[in-house]
Specification:
Blueprint: H1 4-12, E1 21-26, H2 30-39, E2 90-100, E3 110-124, E4 127-140, E5 143-155, E6 178-183, H3 186-195, H4 206-211, H5 222-234, E7 241-248, E8 257-262, E9 269-275, E10 281-289
Antiparallel strand pairs: 1-3, 2-5, 2-7, 3-4, 4-5, 6-8, 7-10, 8-9, 9-10
């Protein structure tokens, strides 16, 4: 087992990844858009070639498509294929900061510039961690449609047979101006993973989630949690979405229900949160409107 100093040195050796950029192309196809619509319970036939998509849907395009031989045992692409080879076995989404300038249109090709913004080591209560920040710049016809900074947390694996260390629960706020209950069904989570081309096994393989990563059940996809929060917030927002910040605080489990909540808009912004079936805070979000 390496020492903390050796771990920090290993992360320091990855700093030459910072600033690396790769380009992911997407045709923003009608078929893809209709699959997303169906997954979100929207009539797929309502979308036509040339239609502007909901502005926050850009997060479900531009997947990293790895060869099957490049997929690791957890379902993610092997380290170094797309992302820095951080020497910790487990990766999960942590949060994001998004600015949205315009919507993508069906049939109008666009690109994602994926830039490694930061690799930061941390040693905390639950052991060694590293935070990878990716900056995704979405461009269409020479214009910047959105900028998405996404944080992923890498952690040590729990000892065999032991559960993953859980974040101490915090009660969700009780002052919601609106709320919406959503079932995180297996088909919904599977379809979201499919449209985003995410094969992480913790979202669909219960044996793997329990035996290898120490979770009590299959884990809700954090990107889907953010998507559902945004969809709920936009029903109550004062105008066009221009961005959002989000942080995931506690896992949700596939098959459970989540309560999506929000405060009344103020100064063009809305505070939102998600709570699990026990009333624990699982995610927070601030949505900005114009």
């Amino acid at each position: 087992m390496t020492t903390d100093a050796e771990f920090e040195a290993a992360i320091a050796a990855l700093q030459d990844w910072v600033g690396r950029e790769r380009v992911v192309e997407d045709e923003i196809g009608l078929s893809s858009a209709r699959r997303i619509a169906g997954m979100l319970d929207i009539d797929p036939a309502s979308l036509k070639q040339g239609d502007a998509l909901p502005p926050h849907w850009f997060t479900m395009f531009f997947p990293d498509i790895a060869k099957q031989s490049d997929i690791g045992p957890d379902g993610h692409p092997n380290k170094g294929v797309f992302l820095p080879p951080i020497p910790l076995p487990r990766r999960m989404g942590a949060g994001r900061r998004v600015t949205i300038n315009e919507a993508l249109r069906i049939g109008t090709p666009a690109i994602k510039r994926a830039i490694v913004a930061q690799v930061l080591p941390k040693i905390g209560r639950t052991g060694r961690m590293a935070i990878l920040t990716m900056r995704h710049v979405i461009e269409c016809e020479g214009r910047t449609a959105a900028v998405d900074e996404f944080d992923a947390m890498y952690r040590e694996a729990p000892p065999p047979g032991q559960p993953t260390a859980a974040t101490p629960p915090v009660a969700a706020p009780d002052n919601a101006a609106w709320s919406e209950r959503k079932l995180l069904s297996s088909p919904l989570v599977f379809r979201y993973s499919s449209v985003t081309w995410n094969a992480h096994r913790i979202h669909y393989d219960a044996d793997y989630a329990r035996d290898e990563e120490g979770y009590p059940a299959t884990v809700q996809n954090g990107g889907l949690t953010m998507q559902l929060m945004l969809d709920a917030a936009l029903k109550h927002g004062p105008g066009r979405i221009t961005g959002f910040t989000a942080r995931l605080a506690r896992p949700l489990w596939v098959g459970d229900t989540v309560m999506l909540c929000g405060a009344a808009p103020a100064d063009g912004k809305m505070a939102c949160w998600a709570a699990d079936k026990d009333g624990h805070l699982c995610a927070t979000m601030e949505v900005a409107f114009a």
